[in-house]
Amino acid sequence: MKSPLFSYHAPVSVPEALHLLTTLADEDPRIIAGGQSLVPMMAFRMAQPGHLIDINGISALSGIEVQDNELCIGALVRHAQFGKAVVQSPLGSLLAYVMHHIAHAPIRTRGTFCGSLAHADPASEWCLTAVTLGAKIEVQSERGTRIVSADDLLAGLMSTTLEPDEIIVRTRISLLPQDARFGFYEFSRRPGDYAMAMSLTAYEIEDGRIVNARVGVGGAEDRPRRSEAAEAELNGKEPGKQAFMAAANAAAAGVEPMEDIQASADYRRDLVRVVVRRALEHSL
Ligand SMILES: Cc1cc2nc3c(=O)[nH]c(=O)nc-3n(C[C@H](O)[C@H](O)[C@H](O)COP(=O)(O)OP(=O)(O)OC[C@H]3O[C@@H](n4cnc5c(N)ncnc54)[C@H](O)[C@@H]3O)c2cc1C
């Protein structure tokens, strides 16, 4: 099926894009970045915007740089740009490793990090990454700029707290310490498919024991979330099978898994146990 008719706009500055969003507010204007989610949704008529505001001509949104110990990811930074470490920090290696699990090469060359956050698929690798690492999202409208945590941005299944007149201009993620360890594991039926469950973990070691543990789980609930219970099982423990198994069990016990055509809630809970354990094992 082809998408319904829409008007196309190609602003070259953020203020111009924001003005279009405000003035066309009554006619369902939508930002288009990589188009890798929006265009299929339009083809299926799940989205019928009256106006597409294409931000690809706004060069100010294409940068990726380190500022004040944070990696700043502009709204036009594509998945594929993370293929080689974008920064000499474990964060660069983490983003490169995770990126290779997103979709397929053609989608990675167009789809954007910030577009993934705005789309809010519960199985998005970047949504999981942003929540686990406490990313801050810079959002602009003609009313001003606000910073929102990834946790507060993601409201549920394909749903965010973005207002219709707002654009994500960049995402900021704190660099990880040089000795940080991370692990990622996802389960999907075929390579490139959305994950049925996945986990991202990070921690540091002090005096042989785990500190600053972060355990994120995605694909299992309506949005990715950190498991405080799993983190409590890790902090202060020696890294190894016993602590990892305890954390995996705690994460599985704490989820309220989605049930769908692919998997029952019980099956997904089991998957959570497996992906958390394997992500932690990967971090050794
Ligand atoms: C076959 C297939 C497989 C895929 N597999 C995966 C996968 O395994 N994992 C995964 O994470 N993703 C997957 N995707 C989705 C892909 O990663 C998309 O690129 C991503 O979800 C959205 O990024 P985008 O830049 O393409 O956004 P677009 O499609 O342009 O936009 C998506 C939504 O976000 C809004 N939006 C975009 N940018 C902004 C912004 N800066 N500010 C405000 N709103 C904005 C748009 O208005 C729209 O509502 C897959 C897609 C396809 C087609």
Q: TL;DR?
A:
With 284 residues, the chain is α+β, with helices and mostly antiparallel strands.
Q: Could you explain how this protein is built, in words?
A:
The protein is of the alpha+beta class. The chain folds into 3 domains: 51 residues, Uridine Diphospho-n-acetylenolpyruvylglucosamine Reductase, domain 2, CATH 3.30.43.10; 116 residues, Uridine Diphospho-n-acetylenolpyruvylglucosamine Reductase, domain 3; 102 residues, Enolase-like, domain 1 (2-Layer Sandwich), CATH 3.30.390.50. It is built from 10 helices and 14 strands. It has a 5-stranded antiparallel β-sheet. The protein has a 4-stranded antiparallel β-sheet with strand order 11-12-13-14, with helices on both faces. It has a 3-stranded parallel β-sheet with strand order 1-3-2, covered by helices on one side. A hairpin with a 2-residue loop joins strand 8 and strand 9. Helix 8 packs antiparallel against helix 9 and helix 9 packs antiparallel against helix 10. The model has no long low-confidence stretch (mean pLDDT 96). The protein binds flavin-adenine dinucleotide (FAD). The site of flavin-adenine dinucleotide has 29 residues, from strand 2, helix 2, helix 5, helix 6 and strand 10.
Which descriptors apply to this entry?
four-stranded antiparallel beta sheet, 284 residues, Enolase-like, domain 1, binds flavin-adenine dinucleotide, single chain, Uridine Diphospho-n-acetylenolpyruvylglucosamine Reductase, domain 3, Uridine Diphospho-n-acetylenolpyruvylglucosamine Reductase, domain 2, five-stranded antiparallel beta sheet, alpha+beta
